[in-house]
Design brief:
It is built from eight helices and ten strands. The protein is α+β, with helices and mostly antiparallel strands. It folds into two domains: 80 residues, Phosphorylase Kinase, domain 1, CATH 3.30.200; 179 residues, Transferase(Phosphotransferase), domain 1 (Orthogonal Bundle). The strands form three sheets. Strands 1-2-3-5-4 form a five-stranded antiparallel beta sheet, with helices on one face. The chain has a three-stranded antiparallel beta sheet with strand order 6-8-9, with helices on one face. A two-stranded antiparallel sheet has the order 7-10. Helix 2 runs antiparallel to helix 4, helix 2 packs antiparallel against helix 8 and helix 4 runs antiparallel to helix 7. The radius of gyration is 19 Å and the shape is globular. The relative contact order is 0.11.
């Protein structure tokens, strides 16, 4: 497939990957990703992500078209659907009150439930990994560190930190407590995102919390804000945060059906 693609321009890199916008005669606009294979673990993560996206047929995820490994250069090559829109980070001001935040959360949970039902946890939910399409439907990207609960873990048990973006990670990720990873780990990320949208600042940011700890230390100690400056507390947002940002997973919403029922009441 890739030989039929016409490169249009190079896009900002994604981690170790070079990214290109291209045009395919039948698939239309696509993204080509190329990068080094650094280890068996990194290759296995790439393969799991590619196989998952190849199975999914949902607007909540990018379509996967092509995957190839160059044994000589030890590089991988991926072709996937180009998602038109902007990452949530660039659209934060469009989702700053509960009437906008809860419909977005509702859509995200619809999308995430597809992989949760497959016993897969995203583990890297953050504004940069959510693209808002022109239609308003969010597209969830970058499942590179997703945890496949039915497959062997790829993270060493002795690692002090599990795969994550630390300032959006649940405590069980930050301590690499692998046995506690499940969809409730993603609930924690959604809680951070919801509060950040409402407040306009990261809820665990020490500059706003008012202490000398780092964001990660505040996450571990469960110190966060539900109001900031002129943004006063909203009871529904605060309750959502209190039920998703618990340090122990068993204190969060028990499953996504209960989580979704809470959100449905706010729509």
């Amino acid at each position: 497939m890739i030989v039929d693609c016409k490169i249009i321009k190079e896009l900002p890199p994604g981690g170790q990957k070079r990214v290109f916008l291209a045009e395919h005669p039948s698939a239309g606009p696509v993204v080509i990703k190329r990068g080094p294979i650094k280890s068996f673990t990194s290759l296995e993560r790439i393969k799991r992500e590619v196989e998952l996206l190849s199975e999914l047929n949902s607007d909540f995820y990018p379509k996967q078209y092509h995957f190839n490994i160059d044994v000589k250069t030890k590089e991988f090559e991926i072709v996937e659907d180009y998602i038109e829109g902007n990452v949530l980070r660039e659209r934060m001001k469009d989702f700053c009150n509960p009437k906008e935040i809860f419909p977005l959360l509702n859509s995200l949970i619809q999308g995430l439930s597809i992989i949760w039902d497959k016993n897969i946890v995203h583990r890297d939910l953050k504004p940069e990994n959510i693209i808002i399409r022109p239609s308003g439907i969010p597209c969830i990207i970058d499942l590179g560190i997703a945890r496949f609960l039915d497959l062997e873990s790829l993270t060493k048990t002795i690692s002090p930190l599990g795969p994550c973006t630390p300032i959006y990670a649940a405590p069980e990720q930050l301590t690499n407590n692998k046995n506690l990873i499940d969809p409730r780990t993603d609930f924690f990320g959604l809680g951070i995102i919801a509060l950040e949208l409402y407040l306009g600042v990261h809820p665990f940011d020490p500059n706003h919390v008012g202490n000398d700890f780092s964001i990660v230390e505040n996450i571990m100690q469960n110190i966060f804000i539900v109001e900031a400056g002129h943004i006063k507390v909203d009871d529904t947002i605060a309750e959502f945060a209190s039920r998703t940002l618990q340090t122990q997973p068993y204190n969060r919403f028990r499953n996504y059906h209960i989580l979704n029922a809470f959100i449905a009441k706010q729509l």
